Amino acid sequence: MGNTSPTPTTCLYCRAPLTQTTGPGRPRAYCDRRCQRRAQRRRRREGGVRQPGHHFPAALSIAQDLQAAVTRLLELEHAHEDLAELLAQVRRISTELDHYAAAAVNDARSRGTDWDEVARAACQSRSTVRARWGEAAVDRLLRNRAQERSARPGRAPAPPEARHEILAHVEVPAPGDTRTARRAARRIASALSFLHRHTPLPIKDVAEKTGLSPSYVSRILSGERLPTWTAVRLLAETFGADPADLRPLWEAGQGLARPTRPPLREAAARLAGALRGVYLSAGCPPYERIAQASAGLLGIGTIENVLTGRVVPSWETTSALLTALHAPPGDLRGLWEDVDYAFLVRLMIPPYDGPLPDHIVHPDE
After folding, report:
1. Global pTM?
2. Whole-number percent of the chain with pLDDT over 70
3. What backbone torsions phi and psi does residue 354 show, to the nearest 5 degrees?
């Protein structure tokens, strides 16, 4: 059995004394399996090795999917979907929340956060958070999530030849392109195409008036090309439209950031222009049809006042209008929040459906 006389050593992780025995096999290096796993995680952090099965930081990607899921719930609510469909979407959001919490903890642990900090942040005991968000449990959860999402229909990547064909005809926006940006680019094409159909100008005459090539104009109107702002402006002016109505959509299509905290009138003008741009891309349907599509939430007068910029809409009105025009409300949420912030700064009250004020007047005065 060999000599069993004790040899004092220390744990390579916690430096606690070990009672070492000599004999066959490798000598002990850690107190137990727990210290061994902690040492392995520390080596991964120090060596820059990422967790297998998902990309760091995983929480950011899941948070973006959560935003899309909540936006979808809002669309279902405005569309008066059945309760079963609403609750099914709620379950999807609840599942994604669990995924996000696990990924956020895992990301924090990868940055060196210990379990005591995690327990304080989660307002739970150390043993509870370790059992719920341990490395193996989170890795298994995120692997299963990735497999489920890859198995959903319509998520398969395009074949190489298809991607090449797409890139050959579309000017890809700058890094940071999102589904919102791609939808905005399609709306620009829809709006310009609608405006062109209501003019007597053939493509050749449009090209001559704008100085653009006929083939380039044709690709813009068909949605095959994301145009420059100069091209959008020239086409809108040629078709007798206000280019400002398309500016917010073009900026979203390019992935450009909005001005931070614009003044009230600028914020309201940008929101009104974006709403008119969406209205154009929808083919300028009659106000009566929009009112019907809103299931009674919007009156014809309200729709006209919002689209003409005579009133500043509340978020409920904005969301209902966008849903009736088949546009995701979340795409313009940021523009509305700019107006909301400007109202709060100037009036110290939240915005309501009403005219843009020239003076600070309390509603009770």
Report:
1. 0.48
2. 73
3. 175, 175
